[in-house]
Amino acid sequence: MLPIHVTTAFVLFAATVAAARVVEVRDDASLAAALADARAGDEIRLAPGIYQGGIHVTLAGEKDRPIIVASDDPKNRAIIQGRSGLHVAGAKNIVLKDLIVKGSTGNGINIDDAGKMDHSAVGIRVENCDVMDTGPKGNLDGIKLSGLKDFEIVGCRVEGWGGSAVDMVGCLDGVIRDSQFIGKDGFDQSSGIQMKGGTRNLTVKQNRFTNAGARALNVGGSTGLPFFRPLDAGYEAKDIVVEHNILRGSETPVAFVGVDGAIFRQNTIIKPDKWVMRILQESRDERFVKCRNVAFTGNLIVYSQTQVRTFANIGDDTRPETFTFSKNWWFCADGKTVKPALPVAETDSIYGQDPKLSTDDFPTPTNPAAKSYGASPSNIIKKRETSE
Question: Phi and psi for 105 in degrees, rounded to 5?
């Protein structure tokens, strides 16, 4: 016979495991009920169909037993339509998967720490979700993340938005990968991915950006002092890695704004509208470091001389002398490639040789000499159409 304390522990463990449920929902009422009653380990499955947006809920799973909200059929995904999409406040250990959020007049998907600046929303994964037609005007984001820690956005598609495709305020230890960000006519689209308000230790990799706002990547930004996480952060963003992305169009593919340390490497930039990069400082309080310490390396840049007259737009109160540029490939598609005017001397780079990009949706160099530059073919996401 087992000792009593072992038997009790076993019974409690078995009861906890048994509490996990699969809850199938088919309409707004059953979805609301399932979300209100959700507990750690539950999987809430949405049948194909349209569900009314404006969903606001608090969900708290456990590290090894997240709450999963997903379409029942990934090939015929549920659509959450209108209003403010789906807002999860005080989120902990949740997965949103195989959903379409469409036509939101507020933010599309909004996940946050419920304003509790010292209690992050932890263990968040958003997978294979499409967020379409958000806004279309004003500071309305496709995916809004505030105060997250240990999170991942993977295999998603954001198309048409008002503010940012993905806007992060004070987020920590995250990855955004294998996703697509596509601008649409009639939407404001100030930026594609924006990381600000104390965001730190973030990797953005293997994504595709197509005309994704004025700044496809805003590495940093401008945040009101009460919204920083932590409140005393002396930077908009810190320790950011951007790698193996394809960035086509946009006024500038990347802006570094009040960032304290970033790596921008092995990205392919194709025909930006005005600048290749911007170096700016928008948060002017004396506690903030001036934009500094960025490595720009291994990138492949194809530009038009009729569009790009200034390679790096440099604002006041920045430290461009702390940037480094090396091993990049520069090619002008409509004229003679010249050595770009950068804030510091560049080393070991290539100028004026055609990389001979392929013409498909995922352009890669066919010139053998250029194959080690820009986004690696093995790291470029595969095309996925939306399903409705």
Answer: -95, -5
Amino acid, single-letter form, for residue 18: A
Q: What angle do CA 65, 30, 386 make, to 5 degrees?
A: 75
Question: Any residues with CB less than 8 A from the CB of 215 and at least 6 apart, and which?
Answer: 190, 191, 192, 194, 250, 251, 252, 254, 255, 278
Residue labelled with tokens 């997240």: 66
Grouping H, G, I as helix, E, B as strand and the rest as coil, residue 261 is strand
User: What's the pLDDT at 377?
Assistant: 62
Q: What is the pLDDT of residues 176-202, one digit of tens each?
A: 999 999 999 999 999 999 999 999 999
Question: What pLDDT score was predicted for residue 360?
Answer: 80
SS3 assignment, position 356: coil
275/267 Cα distance (integer angstroms): 15
53-66 per-position pLDDT tens digit? 999 999 999 999 99
CA distance readout (Å), 98 to 18, 68, 81, 114, 388? 25, 11, 15, 24, 11
Q: Which residues of 210-235 are buried (b: 16+ CB within 10 A; e: fewer)?
A: bbbbbbbbbbbbbbeeebbbeeebbb
Token output for 92: 């902990």
Which residues pair with residue 204 across a beta bridge? Answer: 176, 242
- Structure-token pair, residue 322: 């702390």
Low-confidence ranges of the chain (pLDDT < 50): 1-18, 383-388
Is there a contact between 121 and 90 (Cβ–Cβ < 8 Å)?
yes
347 token code pair: 């080393």
Residues paired with residue 176 on neighbouring β-strands, in sequence order: 153, 204
